[in-house]
UniProtKB/TrEMBL annotation, chain A:
This is RNA polymerase II transcription factor B subunit 2. Keywords: DNA damage, DNA repair, Nucleus, Transcription, Transcription regulation. It comes from Diversispora epigaea. GO terms for biological process: nucleotide-excision repair; transcription by RNA polymerase II. Residues 464-501 are annotated as: Disordered. Residues 393-460 form the Transcription factor Tfb2 C-terminal domain. Belongs to the TFB2 family. The keyword Magnesium does not apply. It comes from the Eukaryota. GO terms for molecular function: ATPase activator activity; double-stranded DNA binding.
From TrEMBL, chain B:
This is General transcription and DNA repair factor IIH subunit TFB5. It comes from Diversispora epigaea. SMART domains: Tbf5 (SM01395). It holds the Pfam family Tfb5. Component of the 7-subunit TFIIH core complex.
Amino acid sequence: MPTRIVSHFKTNIYDYLEALPKTTLEKLYEEPATCLAIFRLLPSIARQLVMSLLFDKEGISKNDLIKWIKNDKESLDKFDEAFDKLTKLQMIEQNEKLTLNESFRYSFQDCLTGCGSRQSFGIPLEKHKSKPLDISLLDQYAIEKWENILHFMVGTEKSNVPSASVLEVVTKANLMRDIGGGKYEITNKGFQFLLQDVNTQVWAILIQYLDIAGVMLNMNVVEVLNFFFMLGSLELGQDYSVEGLTPTQRQLLDDLENYGLAYRRKKGSTRYYPTRLATTLTSGNAATVSSNVNIDNTDAGEDSATEQGFIIIETNYKLYAYTKSQLQISVLNLFSELQFRFSNMVTATITRDSVRNALKKGITAQQIISYLTAHSHPQMKKRPSLLPSTVKDQIQLWEMERNRLVVQECYLYKDFKTWSDYEMILKHATKLGVVVWSNESKKMFGVTEAGHEHVRAFIKKKMAQRKSNGTGGNDNFMGNGVNRSTPIGYGDSSNSGTPAR
Amino acid sequence: MVKAVKGVILKCDPTVKQVIYKLNEKERDKFQLIIEDLDENHLFIDSSKVDYIKTEVEKLLEENTYKSELLLPLNDK
């Protein structure tokens, strides 16, 4: 389960890019920084392919391309996957021969050879002009801003309400929901969001921002994406000039400050600094981890326990969390009863009420268990089963307890004259796949609301047939055996055209 | 003659079924809650009473849940 939760951020941005229309992608590829960023997101085989095709104007046939791949199933599968990705991103054009997308090829060539306009990678300002900004200050700023959003989500008491644009994004993304009176509540999706690493979170928010930017803020999606990707290629601690940014991108910069992705000494300043959150956007995992540590602990790097896991649970539902992070404590508070707080740990109990509170918010038992598993203390990992099974089972039982009643709207068919009537109509309804419940001895069955019309029509048709056959009216509905064979035969043939389910 | 009745099929465990029966008894003068007793785990009921049943069942089960006394003072804080 944890693997699903920590799904990689790359998949998010892939999905987004793949869904873009071809013209938008073409425009994106005009920007060298964007090409580099997208290239970095590709799987390694795809990167190989791009590099091989980069300086090849003539193109190459797909069969020749496959010859470069090791001839076993695993490698070929990987090739297919990579090829599929490249095609979906419109990076490969398939005519008689395969070539790279023209604008991508030119921009990426420029990017690697260092030709073309420098602006694509931001305009760094001269170093000695002003005294350089301390990187730790930048980190602190980013952490503060980002944690503020997360704090707000988990509902820490002292947290400030983030700016309106941030609020807009979190509610649109369904991470929080407006419960009226200017109050917001975390949703099931929001909890899932909290479980992910920072990089994934940043991307999730940015993608949501993109959606809003296109529709509501009238921003050009291409410019926004270009800016995101450019940020990913900037250098931490360097200051960059806002010159060369389009008006849209300047507006964007204001918003990104709210998320702690960019920093300016004062509003309207012509220089900006990308923070660690921004510069690790498109890079590998190593950077992610180091930023993760800094973010999770307010005291950067001092204790790395948070990263390794810090929660110990006993079979008596007592929970000890070795953390100082206000954020982690707030997350715990979502589903446990906090008891004591010490300088480096908190104790809590998992109770029926606390779990039910979480469940009411839409957080699932599985999510709680995944969270506990993912953050359990190394000491816990020595045990054969990670979490005490009593606790794990009980949390699930508490969830089941809330669903003791399963309700389904339906129509109940009853008072069948004969068993054969019952059987025939039930058989028809089963074929349609609309039966919710049936009982032979009572000669009753229930069908879904959607199925009711069909079943009723079927019965009416049978009754009309009966009448025309002259074997009596409703009283004698399906009463005698002679008659039975005809309707069933008829029923079968009429059913053959109906989709079964 | 075949009849089709609109309503709600309620799937529950036998315990909850008994609770609903108790409710039915209590409100017998006012309205009919249970239209048909289907089997051990299923009841056929009036669809307009679903919310009522849900809250009542919740309340009753809540009353019958053991709560650790040890934790109570702490919860109050």
